[in-house]
Amino acid sequence: MGGCGYIPGDPWKICDRCGFRYRASSTRKEWTGLIVCNACWDPRHPQDFVRGIADHQAVPDPRPEPADVFLGDNDVTAEDL
Known about the structure:
Layout: E1 12-14, E2 21-23, E3 27-29, E4 35-37
Antiparallel strand pairs: 1-2, 3-4
């Protein structure tokens, strides 16, 4: 952690994660906005930077559904089969 002496331009800071006191030169600011010591610092996960790929889900060559055709009595004969 270091001594209690004065170092010009290097003030004390408290690590937001572990709560110990460190010199400013031994701390870093994380992507979350926390100021942490070098031992507590975690880099941002690479998966956070992955972009999605556009997926075109439209049906190729769409056509409307035809109207229903209803057959009446004796519309189909034995010769039609």
